[in-house]
Amino acid sequence: MSSSTRAISALALASLVAVPSAAQGVRAQVGVAGSVTFPTSYYDADPNGDGFTPALYGLVLVDLQLPETPVGLRLDLSTGHNPANDSLKARLSAAVGAPSDGKTNLLGGTVDLTYNLQPASRVRGYLLGGLGCTESSTRSPPAASQRTRP
After folding, report:
1. Is the peptide bond before 119 cis (omega within 30 degrees of 0)?
2. Which domain holds residue 13?
3. Kind and range of the H or E element at 147?
4. What's the whole-model pTM score?
5. What one-character-per-residue DSSP string does 14-82 give?
6. Is 147 among the domain residues?
7. Is residue 24 a part of any domain in this protein?
8. Domain tally for the chain?
9. Dihedral through CA 31, CA 126, CA 79, CA 44, nearest 10?
C-alpha cells in the first residue's frame, strides 16, 4: 500500500470516528495546517554540497474531547516532500548517465492525549503528549533508459 493510500485511509478512519462520536456528546474538531520546511545541517548540504531544498509540509488533525472535561484525544497525520538540490541532482544524473532527480518523502502520524488549560476562553493553551511514528524515504527515479515499459 502506498504512502498516499495509507494517509487517505487514516484520514477516512479518523473522520468515521469523529462523526458518530459527535452524536454521543464528544466534541470533534478537524484541522488542516501547512508550512515550509527548511533543511538544516547535512540535510541542507553535506561537505560535497549535496542536499535538499525547502518544501511544503502539511498536517491534518482530528481532536476529540468529552464535554465538561479538559482531557481529550488528538490524531495527527503529516506529510512533506523535499526535492534534491542542484548539486545532488547533478551527482545523481552522473551516476545513472541521464538526467535524474531525487526527493525525500516524509509521512507521519501521532496519537496524543491533550489537557486543555482552564479557564475556557477565546485563547488558551494546552498540554500535549503521546506516541507517533514517521516514515522517511529518499527516492531517485531511474533514468529513462532504465525504466521498464509494459
Report:
1. yes
2. 3-140
3. none
4. 0.64
5. HHHHHHHHHHTT-EEEEEEEEEEE---HHHH--TTS--B--EEEEEEEEEEE-TT-SEEEEEEEEEEEE
6. no
7. yes
8. 1
9. 140
Residue 145 maps to a domain: no
Distance CA 52, CA 145 (A): 25
Tell me the average pLDDT across 62-87.
91
Q: How confident is the model at residue 59 (pLDDT cuts 50, 70, 90)?
A: very high
CA dihedral 38, 139, 6, 8 (to 10 degrees): 60
Cell of 21: 462520536
Q: Which of the four pLDDT bands, split at 50, 70 and 90, describes residue 2?
A: low
In a domain, 54, yes or no: yes
User: Span 13-26, mean pLDDT?
Assistant: 57
